[in-house]
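Feature request disguised as a bug report, sorry. It would help if multi-protein outputs had a clear separator. Right now it looks like this:
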Amino acid sequence: MVNQERFAENTTIAIVMGVSGSGKTTVGQTLAAQLNWQFKDADDFHPPENREKMSRGIPLNDADRQPWLRAMRQAIATAIAQGQNLVLSCSALKAAHRQTLADDWDALKWIYLQGSFELIQARMNQRQNHFMPAELLQSQFDTLEPPDPQAALYVDAALPVTAIVQEIIANAIDIP
């Protein structure tokens, strides 16, 4: 485990972003466990109607995403107000989505899990019991507006999870 005394006065919110199937949840959970931070998955913030829509193969539109984004923004604000470090896995596909989540908080660290369509499609085809069908992957890539490389750490989603987590800790999280 990483020494957490340093974070008592500075809260950090690490947002692991990318298309569905890029490994956000697995990486986020592993990162949070390594740092002994709280973890939240954006999927848990979707209202039931969003999950139903996606499970029927219908992509979400920006109006569908608004309650979801507002709920995550509130969770981020609460973590910051309480001084709790947090890892949040969230697609955050568009710049506008990231802006909704970010406000003017300096505490946010963006980590973009970047992978090819073929890699992500192969992963999604292997998933079972997930509400997001592989048929919606193209809509995710079509919607994706990659973050500014100056504002986010780009990590190759094809790397092993442990290598991704170590890269994040070394390059995005201020650990002494």
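(second protein starts here, but nothing in the output says so)
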Amino acid sequence: MTTPQHPAPPQHAPQQAPQPPAGAPAYAHQAPQAPGPQAHQAPQAGYWPGQAPGGGYVSPIPIRRATLGDALLSEWTKIRSVRSTVWTLGVMVLLVVGIGLLVAVGFDSSGNSMHDGSPLFVGFFGLLLGIICVITLGVLTISSEYGTGLIRTTLTACPNRGRVLAAKAVVFFLLTFTIMVLCTVLVSMAGWGLLEDQSSAAPTGEEWLRATVGVSLYTAALGLVALAVGTLLRHSAGAITVMLGVVLLPLVLAMFMATESLGDIRKALFEYSIPNQLAAFYATGADPVSGPTGWTPLWIMAGVAAVALGGAYASLVKRDA
């Protein structure tokens, strides 16, 4: 008895996607769309909107090259959003304005005549302590990113390391300079208002300019040196310690050089120390200070800042993050 043979099921050919007409461009497969205005949009650049020729996703956000303005905006966002900036600048304002006003009130209550001295000199005492805050903020502007690892994200978003350093320097300089100008103008006006009757002559326009804009440019340039040292050392405490040594060590060394053979070195350390250069901005023709006078301290500090930033750029380019 033979087993009945059943016919094999018919083999159906796989259905193929409809092919475009001859001569039409080959676009990627596009799912049917609901009727609407978007359904009649023509494909762009050989593929449907939102889809690359190979099937990948194309972002609708326009892509453009990053510029220095983008880096400046990024650094401004970072420096104004951290608490250290607010606290450091707040303490700086308190020291510069508070101590300056206290010194002016002290001179006014004592009744002692300032003789040939300028009443604007009262701002010098608060500035000596205020530069410590400027140094601290300059170091933290970049060293804090090394401490948290954020510098890797920064350099990934902006591979041009020179642009990153330039943006940090510009934002820090403008912020520090602006706030310092406001502080020094306030202290100088208060000092002149309280000690006007004790001064033999009114300050000249150049003396006002040096006691406000001059010292503000000098301290902001000193902060750029601190920024460069922070870039080189990549450690907040170490960089701040080095900068405090730069400010205080020349005076300390000069105090211990009491021998006659070291007289020239002692004199140079004292004359070119940062506190003495700050005092030169308040000096008048009647009470000149030894060492650089007038605007010379500003040019010296600007040159030092340029050299320090050049070294920081070389280190940032050659070393890994």
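Even a blank line would do. Unrelated, but nice: The chain has one domain: 68-318.
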